Amino acid sequence: MKAKKECVAMLLAGGQGSRLYALTTTVAKPAVQFGGKYRIIDFTLSNCVNSGIDTVGVLTQYQPLVLNEYVGNGQPWDLDRTFGGVKILPPYQAADRADWYKGTANAIYQNMRFIDRYDPEYVLILSGDHIYTMDYNAMLAYAKEQNADCTIAVISVPKEDVSRFGILSADENGRITKFEEKPKQSDSTDASMGIYIFRKDKLFDYLNADAADPNSENDFGKNIIPAMLNAGERLFAYPFVGYWKDVGTISSLWEANMDLLETSKTPFRINDKHRRVFSRSSIRAPHYMADSANVDNSIITEGCQIYGTVKNSVLSPGVIVEEGAEVIDAVIHAGCTIKSGAKVNYSIVASDVIIGENAIVGEPRETSSGISLVGAHQEIPAGEVVPGNVIRQAKGE
Amino acid sequence: MNAVGIIFSNIHDQSIPEITRMRTMASVPFGCRYRLIDFPLSNFVNSSIKNIGVITHYNYQSLMDHIGTGKDWDLATRSGGIRILPPYITAYDNTMSAGLYSTRLEALAGILNFISRAKEEYAVLSDCDTICNIDLNEILAFHKAKGADITVVAKTEVLTRAMVGKQTVIETDEGGRITDIAEQTSNMSGSKYVCMNILIMSRLYLQNLVLDAIAHGYKNFYRDSMMNNVSSANFYVYEHKGFHASITSPAEFFKCNMQLLDKKVRDDLFNNPTHPILTKVRNSPPTKYVEGAKVSNSLLADGCVIEGTVENSIIFRGVRVSKGAVVRNSILMQDTFIGEDVQLNCVITDKNVLIGDGCDLSGHETRPFYIEKGARI
Prior knowledge:
The complex is a heterodimer.
Chain A: E1 7-12, E2 33-34, E3 38-39, H1 41-50, E4 55-59, H2 64-71, E5 85-89, H3 104-109, H4 112-116, E6 122-127, E7 130-132, H5 136-145, E8 150-156, E9 166-170, E10 176-181, E11 190-199, H6 200-212, H7 220-230, E12 235-239, E13 244-246, H8 250-259, E14 287-289, E15 294-296, E16 298-300, E17 305-306, E18 309-311, E19 314-315, E20 320-321, E21 326-328, E22 331-332, E23 337-338, E24 343-345, E25 347-349, E26 354-355, E27 360-361, E28 372-374, E29 379-380, E30 385-386, E31 391-392
Parallel strand pairs in A: 1-4, 1-6, 4-5, 8-12, 14-17, 15-18, 17-20, 18-21, 19-22, 20-23, 21-24, 22-25, 23-26, 24-27, 25-28, 26-29, 27-30, 28-31
Antiparallel strand pairs in A: 2-3, 6-11, 7-13, 8-11, 9-10, 9-11
Chain B: E1 3-8, E2 29-30, E3 34-35, H1 38-46, E4 51-55, H2 61-67, E5 81-85, H3 104-110, H4 112-117, E6 122-127, E7 130-131, H5 136-146, E8 150-158, E9 168-172, E10 178-183, E11 191-202, H6 203-216, H7 221-226, E12 235-239, E13 245-246, H8 250-259, H9 263-270, E14 287-289, E15 294-296, E16 298-300, E17 305-306, E18 309-311, E19 314-315, E20 320-321, E21 326-328, E22 331-332, E23 337-338, E24 343-345, E25 347-349, E26 354-355, E27 360-362, E28 369-371
Parallel strand pairs in B: 1-4, 1-6, 4-5, 8-12, 14-17, 15-18, 16-19, 17-20, 18-21, 19-22, 20-23, 21-24, 22-25, 23-26, 24-27, 25-28
Antiparallel strand pairs in B: 2-3, 6-11, 7-13, 8-11, 9-10, 9-11
Helix pairs in contact in B: 3-6
């Protein structure tokens, strides 16, 4: 008897995330810190577990060290299983080839044997750089109900944003009739979320055909989906309603962090005990608020020590804000120290940065020309000014 | 460290009877996100003790829930790991299981099998309510260097009236060898060694000590087993100079929690990168401070939503303080809900307490007002 799983998830986590600049020089995008105590990948991994999908292949390629260590044996997400669980899948050398992952479809193509070990009917393809909570199980039920070969999750986007997405048109039954990759304009506003459920056999057929085509870019959006559509396969759109954000740029990453502060909007229920977002905890003491602390509309987590002012900001574990320091409209990653008199405005500060006394990072949001970004592991000397819309990278990184 | 660790989880339950009504002393919540057992357990794990037994007596459901498989302390291992040792009661009376034990020594008699089957050379005993961050390897090195039979960890303290009958006082000669062990009585005064209830000895010594106690009907570890041998055996004191607290009364429980507001205490207990205090991970989201929140000199765990005012307080995971509420000098345990315009001063709320809008509750630091688990006010 061969043990099997109904659905295996493949999480594409190999992208560099070059538009996050200094944040991704030494870590892959899915391992970037988010929302205080999380990393971006926590959301997709937690969605899998909360949807009852316990077999997840994480495809890594770019700077995998931190990501590998973070995912580890999957214990924080209950993905340490005797059969299944989370597995890190880097590119590897095979008897007849040795290749980097050349595109999203190629990455899955190279791991078809991994998928086959679990003999699933369905394969769920995910990307590791989106912030959202979603029940994949409901989507799987929809895929079965429609007898779909491929089901694509779609979300409605504003008309002016269609050029940033793959846009789908569907008939009244939900069957996809048209797919346009980043069109200038379109009648439809249903954007692909990069979440696909394929019938495994069909997926493998198209991956094999795609691999044999030397002109293909080996990409799901550009090659696989259009090929399936042209061949008349059953492709369906699964409408998703809720919070979903691609955090591929500095400004969208900053905005997604700030969305957590908007209680009125309640972007997604990070506090829902039944659909909890799990993360690998850094095990630090509770956070301390001093007499001199002045905190307003902010998120603060374990290990922080606040003696100064924190407003409209999101702080990761172990951040120290000294007396007289000000952190406003900022995202501060783990282990940073903001020394007394320093000001951080409208910025993202990566982990283990020391902002020296009376140093100024960024400009007040109302007058700033853009978000400032301070790369990890560096010291901004006392009194130094890092203006708005500037990327400050540590030497050697 | 080649040692087996033993923790007494029901010891001193009667010191804070309200809080231990439904739980062991070991699972008493402390310091925003911890349970008391996290301190001895972390001390063991950080000193690489890999085989740990937790002696339980009654009320240990909450403790089992907290420990789980032990994975949060890296104790979910195939060999060793953590084991809960419930009372050993057989269908027929025998000397080792006659009734439930009430002292440390009787508890040890009940786990004689665990002690004798362990492979480790040494044994470390610790009470569950001894709050400190201590390197047991250093104590073992001291123990070996002195050629001691038992090494007792102690702190130097000026004796006060409040502690009469609640702690064990130790006298030594100049070399640190123990000459007298006694419960503190009202005629004692001055600065003395006070026992922290952490002991190191060889496992075989412990085994023989327990067998000897059964043979002679000894009840008390210090006053009987140790005092009867104090002149012939080598008992030494190892002095711990860092922070230490034990829970001897509700007022002391309140005070110990409040001591965490002192940076020196926090640094000593929590900010040792190679000796973290580990606890069960609850995966709460970070704490959210809503506009209008005012928080000063307070320690807060994750998962809270703060809209009101919090001063000099210890706030556990998942607490909500609504608009207009003022919480002063209080300890709010897990998932406490404070309604709008509530005023609290010197109050301890146990888990899942709800305090309705507009309530005004107050205690005193020597007599904190305790509200039991799940109460609605």
